[in-house]
Design brief:
With 256 residues, this protein is an alpha/beta fold. Helix content is 28%, strand content 22%.
Length: 256
């Protein structure tokens, strides 16, 4: 099982994931992805994971096939400094018609400060001191730096989901030019593998975690294309993954 994670806010805004082959030319100028997977942690505080690296590799392969420029960090490469540095590099080159996807598979951590919970992802060199982790506040800061991009999507297979904390009204999919309308909106979204005080299952069918396995089915096999238009919006992704990957251990949480 992967480490405890927090509940994120319920999604009320749509973002098109549009991972069909021609989406890049239709809606986006450039597509960037940072994909991180950590199986082995040198600190004895963090158990070895079985599928985190394979989860990340599966996501990276699919994104590459869809025209994303993908940066991949695995195990020893995924240090705190390197992860932040790679997000900063993306922030420096991203433009207003670009999209960004960040995927993390590894351990997460929760700390209580008075009445507030703080969430972290644990990099390769994380110990048990939260100063060695990457906080959601730091990710929020990096997301702000990448704010020039039209769309940002964070997929976290073990982490706190309270990334941005803003909400907006959704569009009705039946309205004319729906896809064009939602791709013109600036949006930042997140979906996490589980809620507060839950343990995320590392082992699942097909050599992936339960959560990432269903993410890949959603986007690779088109299972989340609920209306059959060849595009996958964030609302569709969430509608498919949340019930499919939910069990007595975890409930995936979409948010903004």
């Amino acid at each position: 099982m992967r480490s405890k994670i927090f509940q994120s806010m319920i999604i009320l805004i749509l973002i098109t994931l549009s991972l069909v082959s021609d989406a890049r030319t239709q809606f986006y100028q450039n597509s960037y992805a940072l994909v991180i997977g950590i199986n082995e942690y040198p600190s004895p505080n963090w158990s070895r994971l079985n599928y985190a690296r394979k989860d990340a590799q599966g996501v990276a392969a699919f994104l590459t096939s869809r025209g994303f420029e993908v940066t991949q960090l695995y195990d020893t490469q995924a240090t705190r400094t390197r992860i932040i540095s790679e997000m900063h590099k993306i922030a420096k080159k991203v433009e207003e018609n670009d999209r960004i996807l960040v995927f993390f598979a590894g351990h997460g951590h929760t700390e209580r400060f008075g009445e507030q919970d703080a969430g972290y992802i644990v990099p390769y060199d994380g110990t048990y001191d939260s100063a060695t982790f990457i906080s959601m506040e730091e990710i929020r800061s990096q997301s702000t730096r990448m704010g020039t991009a039209k769309h940002q999507l964070f997929i976290m297979d073990a982490c706190y989901g309270g990334l941005l904390g803003t909400r907006a009204g959704a569009l009705d999919p039946s309205i004319p030019h729906y896809l064009q309308a939602i791709t013109q909106r600036d949006a930042r979204q997140i979906i996490t593998a589980g809620g507060k005080n839950q343990q995320v299952l590392d082992r699942g069918p097909g050599g992936h975690s339960v959560f990432t396995g269903h993410i890949l089915k959603a986007i690779k096999d088109g299972m989340a294309d609920i209306n059959g238009d060849g595009y996958i919006t964030f609302a569709e992704l969430s509608s498919y993954v949340v019930p499919a990957a939910s069990n007595s251990y975890q409930t995936p949480a979409p948010g903004t």
